[in-house]
Design goal:
The protein is α+β, with helices and mostly antiparallel strands. Helices cover about 30% and strands about 30% of the residues. It contains 7 helices and 14 strands. The strands form 4 sheets. The chain has a 4-stranded antiparallel β-sheet. The protein has a 4-stranded antiparallel β-sheet with strand order 7-8-9-10. Strand 3 and strand 4 form a beta hairpin. Helix 3 packs antiparallel against helix 4. The protein is globular, with a radius of gyration of 23 Å. It starts with a helix and ends in a 6-residue tail after the last helix.
Length: about 325
């Protein structure tokens, strides 16, 4: 009897594994072209009523979004077979016709995909606030509204992709993709104006862990995405003034004893390296590592191994242009 139960358990584990692989392959688009050309193979079952978006056979509608001349719906396959299920973000025109679709992965209880709320805090709507959510903004200064869709993969300390979508009068298309963001949308993404122009910049925060500690000790590596060549691209090298300000702010934080953590120490070293001052970063790290020796001893981390790991990280940091 026990042998038969083991066989059943192995078979069920295999089904779960293959289901996970199939869902993840279905969800992960290769590039912006794949996102834009995703085929509309679903069936609308109910027209939008009272401002709602249509229903889709085999899916439950999790949330609706008002986007000016467009509306969007977030859907999840039902019933959800595991702790997550395939999902979709679909944008409709005023006639309830789908004009854009993205495949997503959604938690069985919580949605893992979101639209950036420009009136929220760090892109998320603040519960109980009186401010109405605003999901559109002209990010590239061409007079056309854009949205940002965040898609979380469900992994531990990983990973979110942010896709910037332009809501044109005649076409809806992706104009930028930022991957490798940490945690749920939009923990690792800032939308700021770093220049005097009309366009906005997207600042990505990516953790760079080393053997100097765990995930929460990882350095914060910045990348600035700006609109150029028809899409948002990594243009970090064009924002050295901003990077200098970040370094000054992080150094000011380090002067306060309560802020002296491995995360900040590694981040300051990375700040130096991004500006092409790698040796200064190594020196700062080595001189201040002694302040964190009690923490390293508790975590049984060899400080020499930690120094080597930090040096290896700095060697891989992309340097901003002059």
């Amino acid at each position: 009897m026990q042998k038969g139960e083991n066989i059943v358990s192995i078979a069920l584990a295999g089904v779960v594994l293959f289901t996970i692989i199939a869902i993840q392959r279905r969800w992960n688009p290769a590039d912006l072209k794949d996102v834009a050309n995703s085929a509309e193979d679903f069936i609308l079952t109910t027209a939008g009523i009272g401002g709602q978006v249509p229903d889709i056979a085999g899916y439950e509608r999790i949330k609706s979004f008002r986007l000016g001349d467009y509306r969007a719906g977030l859907y999840r396959a039902t019933p959800a077979p595991l702790i997550f299920a395939p999902g979709k973000v679909i944008i409709y025109d005023h006639s309830d016709q789908p004009v854009f679709r993205m495949e997503t992965l959604e938690g069985s209880k919580d949605s893992w995909s979101m639209l950036y709320d420009f009136n929220g805090r760090h892109g998320l709507t603040v519960p109980g606030t009186r401010a109405r959510p605003s999901y559109t903004r002209d990010l590239n200064g061409n007079g056309v509204p854009d949205i940002i869709v965040g898609q979380y993969s469900g992994g531990d300390h990983c990973c979110t992709v942010a896709t910037i979508v332009e809501l044109g009068k005649d076409t809806v298309k992706p104009i930028g993709r930022i991957d490798g963001l940490d945690g749920l949308p939009f923990e690792g993404l800032e939308i700021r104006k770093l220049t005097k122009g009309t366009n906005w910049q997207c600042i990505a925060h990516r953790p760079c862990p080393t053997t100097c500690g765990g995930h929460y000790d990882a350095a914060d590596l910045l990348a600035v995405y700006d609109f150029t060549g028809g899409r948002f691209q990594n243009q970090t090298g064009n924002f050295r003034d901003y990077l200098q300000d970040v370094l000054r702010q992080d150094l000011a934080k380090w002067r306060l004893e309560k802020n002296r953590t491995m995360e900040l120490l590694q981040t300051v070293a990375v700040d130096y390296a991004v500006l092409g001052q790698e040796e200064d970063g190594k020196r700062f790290f080595a001189l201040n590592l002694t302040l964190l020796m009690p923490t390293l001893q508790r975590q049984k981390v060899d400080p020499n191994v930690c120094l080597d790991a930090l040096e290896g990280l700095l060697d891989r940091v992309p340097v901003a242009g002059p």
